[in-house]
Amino acid sequence: MNLINQDLVWWITVFDLPAMAGLFWLIWRTRQDSDRAMEHIHVKLEHRSDQFREALHAFKLEVAKSYASQSDLRDLEIDVLARTLWGEARGEGTAGMQAVATVVLNRVRVAQNRGKFWWGNNIIQVCQKPYQFSCWNRADPNFQKLQAIDKTDLYFATALRIARRAVVGVLDDATQGAATHYHAAGISPYWAKRETPTAVIGSHIFYYLV
Q: Domain boundaries in the chain?
């Protein structure tokens, strides 16, 4: 009986345990590969979804231009710009919101001078270009808030006043150098490395990068 038990223990030790370990490793590796594949698919779907939303938005905007008056379009530009200022810089005061408005206007100016540009060709396209002004990203906490905000909010009322001046062309360039990019002082994006800021306004650092 002892000999049988010893043989059984030897068999389990030599064959069964390594086989089980190999099986568990194979299951773990398969799960890891599956998770990576799903993440890759998710990223691609998100990218395609953003491209579709952008194309649909541009189409809707072109259709709106066909039917809306210049006054209606100007009001829409003011509204979208004001919500962008509120979402991006409401904690930066008037000067901070003016600086962000300047970035939007400078991007529109670059696009107009070149015929078109990847970040959009007008105020609405520039503001809502995916992953540029983060408050318009669907996953950003500000996105739902800026949909509901109205002029009863003092910060939004200020943003509206700045946006009106920007749209009619009487807002001075607060960034002192036609800035097209900015970031918060607490972060270091890759695109800002070895670049010289044009201005530091509040907690935002501004650059001209074209």
A: 1-67, 70-207
